[in-house]
Write a structure and sequence with these properties.
The chain has a four-stranded mixed beta sheet with strand order 2-1-3-4, sandwiched between helices. The chain has a three-stranded antiparallel beta sheet with strand order 5-6-7, with no helix packed on it. It is globular. The chain is built from 25 helices and 13 strands. With about 600 residues, it is an alpha+beta fold.
Length: about 600
């Protein structure tokens, strides 16, 4: 069922036990009315951002926000706003620097005073609230220099290579040489920091980057559940010392990471990793319609008092199921489903196993049918009856707004499905998403895309163009522009990066620049287009397409093409091209990989030097 879009319509549905009463925090939504009331009543604002699958968020809700004195202090002296960062990715991105739960304190005018990460115990939190109240009443609250930044006022100039050099340096400097990955906590939320290492190794014959990528991927293999196959969210100290949360975002990232690792190394362990992730997704996290749930918590209702969740995960399948299955958050979010679909397509390309593609297609069709609006863009979230009847820790606000993250990630997924299936319907879907993205979120003056639709809150806290989400959008519109022969789209990709990647913002984001690195590697090195002229049902043409799909080449655009730009030679032929050169017609699938290698920058530089 297609949904009619209206940026003026807002549907609020709360899925929690929270009610407006003295025994509960009077949580408000991130909407203009809450900010207007804070200004009118001259009350400071507390913003609580997290999600249902977050253990630290749950602990703070159950222990701290249920404390009577904390409740009284918040209800009497603050406007308290609660946001689910998955349902509202625009707000989640704004506060992602402070992880989950993120707690921010704002002046009545919306100016941030300070923000903090993690859970706080009731005693400490009460004292903190009292200090904020005292300083507010004394007029001593000061502006936070680390507050979320707004959209740059000017676009960045100069070569894109300068931005790429800055991003590479930041990622390289923060890489853990001993264990692989980044930081003490090995968190698998996004695969892109590692994917850019694989990409650098591929494009430039950079063996150091390739070894780092493989080392990281091998580490994440140790972070998997050996029984059910899922990827645990994070590890600390050692790769196998894991946090027992299983998030869809981690499964999506693992699929892409292991697919790249398999195609780069041929190591069968990564094939087994892909199988494990797929087994977990289909066996535990798939909805009856085939989409994927958001999270599985580290909460098992049947645990005995003497058993920890770590003890539980040491059991085999039968032993676990006797006790019970950990709680699953049955929310379905478009952005992370898009990432999972892309990962499944990558698993298909890396292995040739159709089950991965079948799972991806089933999920994507449901999302298109149920969530693509008449304007083309994708709804991030819709309430379902399961959620209405399940008690949740956090409230969820369901809006009719477009969010950049959902459009960019699902757009990439639709493009991946088009290349993997050859079905024109996925090309149509990608075009509709791009049209909706430009219509609702594009800054026509400076370029780049806003994180969400315009609202009255923008006047209070400022409208953002998220760096990493713009990088994903840039990849999407660039590749779609190549496929469509649309230079305007390709130019929009570069404008998006220039509009958001100021030196100061890139520096501040540090290692959270993996998507930007991948987008820049793609745009600066250029696409590789694999066009097959021949009937799609011809086995010879299918063999050529299959050969292109199986190649590790993240810049590729693979499709059938009618005669015109290339001649009909009387038999199926492939042409590999970029902006500078084309291959001779290829009819033998076994030569496709060799011919494609000639389009790597490292090889092209060597050839140019020999001339």
């Amino acid at each position: 069922m297609k949904r009619k879009s209206s940026l003026l319509a807002l549907f609020l549905i709360a899925f929690s036990s929270t009610c407006i009463a003295a025994e509960h925090v009077q949580w408000r939504s991130w909407e203009a009315d809450a900010f207007a009331e804070a200004k009118k009543r001259k009350l400071p604002i507390l913003v609580n951002v997290g999600h249902e699958g977050c253990t630290a968020c749950r602990m703070m809700e159950e222990n701290t926000y249920s404390n009577g004195e904390v409740i009284a202090l918040l209800n009497d002296h603050f406007i308290a706003i609660q946001v689910d960062c998955e349902a509202r990715p625009d707000i989640g991105e704004r506060y992602s620097d402070w992880a989950w739960p993120a707690t921010a304190f704002l002046k009545p005018d919306g100016t941030q005073v300070f923000a903090m990460r993690g859970s706080r115990r009731p005693g400490d939190f009460k004292n903190l609230l009292k200090r904020v109240i005292e300083r507010h009443q004394a007029g001593e609250l000061r502006t936070d220099d680390l507050a979320p930044y707004g959209a740059p006022k000017v676009a960045r100039e100069g070569p894109l290579a300068d931005i790429l050099a800055q991003v590479r340096e930041q990622l390289d400097d923060s890489f853990d040489q001993d264990r692989g990955g980044w930081g003490q906590a090995k968190v698998l939320e996004y695969a892109e920091p590692s994917l850019q290492l694989f990409l650098r190794g591929h494009l430039h014959d950079d063996k150091i980057s390739e070894r780092r990528a493989v080392k990281t991927a091998q580490g994440f293999l140790a972070q998997m559940d050996s029984v059910w196959g899922g990827m645990f969210y994070a590890s600390f100290g050692r790769w196998d010392q894991v946090v027992r949360e299983l998030r869809l975002e981690s499964q999506a990232a693992a699929l892409q990471l292991f697919a790249d690792a398999l195609q780069t190394t041929g190591d069968a362990r990564f094939a087994r990793g892909l199988d494990g992730i797929h087994r977990y997704l289909t066996g535990m996290m798939a909805s009856p319609r085939g989409t994927f749930y958001a999270n599985q918590k580290d909460v098992v209702a049947g645990l005995s008092s003497g058993m920890s969740v770590d003890d539980y995960y040491e059991l085999d399948d039968e032993g676990r199921r006797v006790i019970g299955v950990p709680f699953i958050d049955r929310a379905v979010y478009t952005d992370v489903n898009g990432r999972a679909i892309t990962g499944l397509v990558r698993a298909f390309e890396a292995t040739g196993e159709a089950r991965y593609l079948d799972t991806a297609v089933r999920a994507a069709k449901v999302l298109v049918d149920e969530r693509q609006t008449d304007d083309g863009w994708m709804l991030q979230f819709e309430a379902d009856q399961d959620l209405r009847t399940v008690k949740r820790v956090r409230r969820v606000d369901v809006t009719g707004y477009p969010y950049l993250r959902a459009q960019a990630q699902f757009g990439l997924a639709a493009l991946a499905l088009f290349q993997a299936t050859g079905e024109e319907s996925w090309h149509v879907t990608a075009n509709r998403v791009a049209d909706g993205l430009k219509k609702t979120l594009l800054d026509t003056e400076l370029g780049g895309f806003f994180g969400g639709a315009a609202s009255e809150v923008d006047a209070v806290v400022g409208r953002r163009k998220p760096l990493e989400d713009n990088a994903v959008a840039a990849r999407f519109v660039y590749l779609l522009g190549v496929l469509n022969k649309d230079d305007d789209l390709r130019n929009e990709a570069e404008r998006a990066i220039r509009a958001v990647a100021s030196p100061e913002i890139v520096s501040r984001e540090g290692r959270i620049t993996g998507n930007l690195a991948v987008a820049l590697e793609l745009i600066t090195s250029g696409y590789v287009e694999f066009s097959v002229v021949g009937e799609p049902d011809d086995a010879r043409a299918q063999a050529l397409i299959a050969a292109a799909r199986s190649i590790y080449e993240p810049r590729k655009v693979v499709h059938f093409e009618k005669p015109g730009r290339y001649p009909d030679r009387g038999y199926p032929a492939m042409y590999i091209c970029n902006d500078d050169q084309c291959s001779l017609p290829i009819s033998d699938p076994t030569t496709v990989a060799t011919q494609a290698r000639q389009f790597k920058p490292a090889v092209m530089r060597k050839v140019a030097a020999m001339r």
